[in-house]
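Help needed: design a sequence for this.
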């Protein structure tokens, strides 16, 4: 009897999901989130975000990768709750952490929020805007366009210490990377799939020159695993002995603004930029995935995996229902 009930219930959920998605009504998702959460309260929300993102990326293409990275920095630190946007006069907030010093996108999230406030006041959370902007950044870089769950609410706390604890540094090895991800409920597959985000964008020499070029393992030498035809190019770009070198280097030099599989070909041929990229070859499962994607002739499987992994990242420690708040301004002061 109980089994029958479970089966019937499962059937209802499946049927309901099918009916609802084709009619555009919200599809219930994880822990109070739903695909199309704003269907009734702000039906044009997703369209408005995409329109604004198109404009933002047209004005400055480097903002597409920046806004993709923005979601990582929000979600990994205190969950996807827009706490990265908060400011403090008395303490160091997340955005003041050294690890986030090159993070860009604050004004753009605020700009999108202003559009949404015009259309539907006090309705769409900043946390959802960050997730939608990242989705559109991928799409506008020729990546997949996947459906996002929405319904997150905004947190009220932001502390730099959380950023230091929860964001994986670029010098991380595979063991540490798996731990950073697993405490956020993400597995090895999310790790290897989401690392592929480094197929777009750039990094400052400060983020890798010590680890890879000049002081590998604190031994004052070059990382012996770094591709020897690639290394001289990087050494030309980054001056030795400057731990704060802000010079930018493209992470996937062949196609830095196209979301494709070349990240995996880079890593496979030892041209990954960070130790954390190269570390994906040090675990059997992540290595097999890198190898498969490096030789894949279609992006189909990767795009499917990416959509799933981004959905997983968007579920980290979310505030839903009556938790958190909806703010008028994302970058509000907490004190
Ligand atoms: C696996 C652990 C990861 C590490 C250690 C890492 C580290 C970094 C670092 C150090 C930078 C360059 C910052 C700079 O020098 O300006 C960067 C850039 C970037 N990261 Fe990651 N990241 C990781 C995972 C991810 C994930 C999961 C995403 C997905 C959202 C992501 C998306 C990006 C993007 C798009 C950029 C380029 C930003 C730009 O061009 O402005 N990263 N990452
Ligand atoms: C290299 O790293 C070691 C250990 O972290 C440090 O003591 C040393 O000062 C570094 N050398 C340079 C040139 O940065
Ligand atoms: C280094 O990169 C080149 C492409 O620039 C590639 O042909 C070569 O196989 C790579 N070396 C290694 C060890 O993967």
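Sure. Designed sequence:
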């Amino acid at each position: 009897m109980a089994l029958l009930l479970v089966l019937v219930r499962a059937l209802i959920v499946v049927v309901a999901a099918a009916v609802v998605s084709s009619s555009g009504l919200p599809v219930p998702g994880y822990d109070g989130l739903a695909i199309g959460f704003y269907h009734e309260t702000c039906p044009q929300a997703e369209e408005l975000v995409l329109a604004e993102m198109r404009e933002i990326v047209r004005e400055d293409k480097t903002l597409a990768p920046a806004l993709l990275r923005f979601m990582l920095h929000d979600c990994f630190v205190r969950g996807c709750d827009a706490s990265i946007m908060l400011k403090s006069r008395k303490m160091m907030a997340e955005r003041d952490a050294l690890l986030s010093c090159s993070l860009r996108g604050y004004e753009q999230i605020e700009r999108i929020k202003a559009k949404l406030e015009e259309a539907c006041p006090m309705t769409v959370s900043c946390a959802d805007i960050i997730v939608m902007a990242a989705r559109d950044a991928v799409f506008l870089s020729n990546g997949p366009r996947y459906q996002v769950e929405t319904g997150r609410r905004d947190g009220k706390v932001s502390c730099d210490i959380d950023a230091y604890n929860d964001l994986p540094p670029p010098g991380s090895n595979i063991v540490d990377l798996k731990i950073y991800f697993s405490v956020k409920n993400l597995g090895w597959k999310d790790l290897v799939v989401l690392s592929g985000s480094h197929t777009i964008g750039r990094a400052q020499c400060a983020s890798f020159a010590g680890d890879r070029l000049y002081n590998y393992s604190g031994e004052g030498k070059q990382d012996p695993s770094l591709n020897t035809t690639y290394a001289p190019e990087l050494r030309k770009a980054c001056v030795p002995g400057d731990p704060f070198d802000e010079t930018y280097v493209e992470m996937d030099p062949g196609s830095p603004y196209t979301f494709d599989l070349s990240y995996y070909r880079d890593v496979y041929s030892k041209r990954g930029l960070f130790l954390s990229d190269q570390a994906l070859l040090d675990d059997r499962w992540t290595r097999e995935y890198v190898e498969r994607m490096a030789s894949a002739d279609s992006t189909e499987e990767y795009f499917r995996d990416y959509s799933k992994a981004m959905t997983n990242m968007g579920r980290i420690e979310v505030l839903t229902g009556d938790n958190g708040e909806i703010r008028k301004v994302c970058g509000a002061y907490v004190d």
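The longest strand covers residues 202-204.
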